[in-house]
Amino acid sequence: MAGYENIRDKGFDKRSTEELREIQSRGGKRSGEVRRRKADFRKTLNLLLTAEIDNEEWKPFLESLGVECTLESALLMAQIKMALAGDTQAAKFVAQYSGQSARAEEDLENKKADTELIKARKEAITGENENDEALDRLDQILKEVRDNAVKQETE
After folding, report:
1. Phi, psi of 52, deg, nearest 5
2. Kindly report the CA angle at 11 between 35 and 18, in degrees rounded to 5?
3. Which of 75, 91, 112, 136 is the most buried (most CB within 10 A)?
4. Which pLDDT tens digit goes with each residue over 12-55?
5. Cα–Cα–Cα angle for 68, 70, 76, nearest 5°?
6. Distance (Å, rounded) from C-alpha 71 to C-alpha 96?
């Protein structure tokens, strides 16, 4: 079965405004928790990577290069060592993060070009500018919010 009949009914259109508000509130709180957890993870990882190492194998070598003796430096040096040993994934890593590979930039530019092409096609077909459409939608949402507030005040 294709089309609209194939979509499972989630029942959101049958929920009251209060139920929907509660669901959105829980989702917002959960989103905030996840964002904070990810930020804490990044902070911890950065602290660990910048911690000084005291490894007999790596420290003298890094010092002789005039590089800070951190876990980050040792990790990068290990990737270079693996690349020199023939590990192509390590070589790609080194090339990508040293700026020698334009692959990431090409991908970003291609995505931007695709987005612009889609917008241009949509505008050519519908005659609507995406910015105008977004403003109209925002106006509609604000009107609904105002109407709901007025309705709740009268109740």
Report:
1. -75, 140
2. 65
3. 91
4. 667 788 888 888 899 889 999 999 999 999 999 888 888 888 88
5. 95
6. 20
Non-local CB neighbours of 12 within 8 Å, separated by 6+ positions: 20
Q: Which two tokens stand for residue 24?
A: 């959105």
Tokens coding 133: 């459409």
pTM: 0.46
CA distances from 6 to 11, 12, 15 (A): 15, 16, 21
Torsion sign across C-alpha atoms 50, 98, 82, 57: negative
Confidence of residue 146 (pLDDT cuts 50, 70, 90): confident
Can you spell out the DSSP letters for 131-153? HHHHHHHHHHHHHHHHHHHHHHH
Structural element, H or E, at residue 154: helix 130-154
Q: How far is residue 43 CA from its own chain's centroid?
A: 17
What are the pLDDT digits (tens) for 43-81?
998 888 888 888 888 888 888 888 888 888 888 888 999
**Separation of alpha carbons 136 and 134, rounded Å:** 5
